[in-house]
Specification:
Layout (H helix, E strand, L loop, with lengths): L2 E10 L2 E11 L4 E5 L6 H9 L6 E6 L2 E2 L10 E5 L10 H11 L6 H14 L15 H13 L5 E5 L7 H18 L2 E6 L2 H7 L2 E6 L2 E6 L1 H6 L4 H7 L3 E8 L2 E4 L2 E4 L6 E7 L4 E4 L5 E11 L2 E8 L4 E6 L10 E6 L3 E4 L1
Parallel strand pairs: 3-8, 3-9, 6-7, 7-8
Antiparallel strand pairs: 1-2, 1-4, 4-5, 9-10, 11-12, 11-14, 12-13, 14-20, 15-19, 16-17, 16-19, 17-18
Helix pairs in contact: 2-3, 2-4, 3-4
Bound molecules: adenosine-5'-triphosphate (ATP).
């Protein structure tokens, strides 16, 4: 099922939370809505589900205007971060709940067979008789997904479903969710404020700020070609340097970095920590190391340029670098915006 939003607007009292958002999610696609807190992600999802009404624009399910489709008939499965399971029901009963209240009548044995099938799909075979308090947080979110999938939704809406879980469990669940989504081919919208999660999971990422879409594209497009300083900063750690563009290049400490399509004049040059190289001598920006932080797969070096600018760069874990060392930084890649 394809979903299309056309110039959707939502205002709460006098506050406009969503400003004319247009968006298309192809059938079977997994799209992440990514943005800082308050950017309107949840409001957009709730409007698609029919839990909130748009006060401008339109939402289409396939070619049909969604306002004409009652919430229960939209065929939407929802999983929220805090969409608690019914605590007094077993895992199996939780999964069966939607089927029992659905307009589509199923026999007891049909429901039991479907519950078994879903338990297998979410890899919780044998746990059907446990209560939610007797399983882990990650397992509970898998039950929540099975419950959402029980009634064969055409669209799956996930609102920070792994938000409350620890980092390692989140990563496992991401891989698992992607596999299930591909297996079922179900159109999915996933809300998150976690860049890594969005980039890992999605076919396409839609970045929101203050109720507006500021960029959308594949993970590769948005990471390699962010269209603004906001997107560049939001997608990950970055350094900001001042530069002067001339003839399609910007000069940084004696090295030229390509600045295609940027008009001559002052520019902000954003450089990710991994796109800087540390050298003891040679051409580059002179810097003094102020701190070294060891991380599992690299060393993060904090350094100061001659003009006092603080810089962060990542070097391989075995690099010999100490606080107080003086060297040079070379820029390998940058995102440049006219200032
Ligand atoms: N029922 C409501 N009444 C008034 N304002 C609301 C209501 N729901 C949301 N808002 C406001 O609309 C804006 C967008 O909220 P929304 O929950 O959609 O953002 P979000 O991007 O999902 O944020 P988060 O990541 O924190 O969940 C916020 O400023 C929020 O305070």
């Amino acid at each position: 099922m394809k979903i299309r939003l056309d110039q959707v607007v939502k205002t709460f009292d006098t506050f406009r939370a969503v400003h004319g958002v247009s968006l298309e999610v192809a059938s079977g696609e997994l799209v992440a809505l990514l943005g800082p807190s308050g950017s309107g992600k949840t409001t957009i999802l709730r409007m698609i589900a029919g839990l909130e009404f748009a006060d401008g624009g339109a939402i289409y399910f396939g070619d049909q205007d969604a306002t004409a489709i009652p919430v229960r008939e939209r065929g939407v499965g929802f999983v929220f971060q805090h969409y608690a399971l019914f605590p007094h029901m077993t895992v199996g009963e939780n999964i069966a709940f939607g089927m029992k209240v659905s307009k589509v009548k199923r026999s007891k044995s049909e429901i039991a067979a479907r519950v078994d099938e879903l338990l297998k799909l979410v890899r919780l075979e044998g746990l059907g008789n446990r209560f939610p308090s007797q399983i882990s947080g990650g397992q509970r979110q898998r039950v929540a997904l099975a419950r959402a999938l029980a009634v064969d939704p055409k669209v799956l809406l996930l609102d920070e479903p792994f938000g409350a879980l620890d980092a390692a469990v989140r990563r496992d669940l991401r891989v698992w969710l992607r596999e299930i989504q591909e297996q079922l081919g179900i159109t999915t919208l996933f809300v998150t404020h976690d860049q890594e999660e969005a980039l890992d999971l999605a076919d396409r990422v839609v970045i929101l700020s203050e109720g507006k879409i500021v960029q959308e594209g594949t993970p590769e497009e948005v990471t390699r070609r962010p269209n603004s300083a906001f997107v560049t900063r939001f997608l990950g750690d970055t350094n900001r340097l001042q530069g002067q563009v001339g003839g399609g290049q910007v000069q940084l400490g004696g090295t030229a970095v390509a600045a295609p399509g940027i008009r001559d004049g002052k520019a902000d040059v954003y450089v990710r920590p991994a796109d800087l190289e540390w050298a003891v001598e040679g051409e580059g920006l002179s810097a003094t190391v102020t701190r070294v932080i060891d991380r599992p797969d690299h060393r993060r070096v904090l350094a100061k340029l001659a003009d006092g600018t603080q810089i962060e760069l990542d070097v391989p874990p075995e690099t010999r670098v100490l606080r107080g060392d003086i060297g040079v930084l070379r820029v390998h890649r940058a995102n440049i915006f006219a200032a």
